[in-house]
Amino acid sequence: MKFLDKTISKIEEVILGYSVIIMALILIGNVISRSVFNRSWTFAEEIGQALIIIMTFTGIGYGAKKARHISMSAIFDILPDKGKKIFMYVITSVTSATMFYLAYLAFVYVHKVQMLGRVTPALRIPIYLIYAIVPIGFVLGGIQYARNFWINIKRKEVYLSTEKKARE
Q: Distance between CA atoms of 107 and 128, rounded to whole angstroms?
C-alpha cells in the first residue's frame, strides 16, 4: 500500500510541477509574442484554462494528503484531544463522502460532455478529456480523507492527514 501511495504522490507532484512550468512558459511566451510580433497565440488561453483545471483537481488529493487544504480551526484548536478526535472523525468522514459524491456527479457530467462531442475552439481537443481530471481528483481526495479517517481510528494521536499529526 505504501508503494501505491508513494507512486500516486509522485505522479501528483509531477503533474502539478509540470503544469505550473508549462503554464508559465506558454503565458510568458504569449506575452512576448504579442509584444514583439504583434501576434497572440490562439491556443494559449485554452492551454492555460486546461492547466488550471488539471492543477486544481490534481491538487485536491495532494493537498489533503499533506494537510495543506483550507481549514477553519478556531473551534478545533480550543477543544481537548478527545473533542479533536471526534471532530476529525466527523470532518474526514463527511468530507470523504462528499468527495465521492462529487466524483459521481463529475463523472456523469464528463460523460454528458463526451456525448455532446464538444471540442476546444483553437486546438479542437475534446473537452471531456480535459474535464476527465475532475472526477479523478475528487476520487483521490475522497480516498485521502477516508485514509485520514481510518488512521484516526487506528492511532491514539489526532491526525490532520495521513502524514501530519495535529500537534506538530
A: 10
Q: Are 154 and 126 in contact (CB under 8 A)?
A: no
Q: What is the pLDDT of residue 79?
A: 82
Domain boundaries, the chain: 2-154
CB 121 within 8 A of CB 46: yes
Residues 19, 51 contacting (CB under 8 angstroms) = yes
Looking at residues 145-152, what average pLDDT do you find? 92
User: Which residues are registered as beta bridge partners of 126?
Assistant: 119
DSSP 27-78: HHHHHHHHHHHS---TTHHHHHHHHHHHHHHHHHHHHHHTT-S----HHHHH
Per-residue burial over 92-115, b = 16 or more CB atoms within 10 Å of its CB, e = otherwise: beebbeebbebbeebbeebeebee
pTM: 0.86
pLDDT in tens, 63-96: 888 877 767 677 877 888 888 889 889 999 999 9
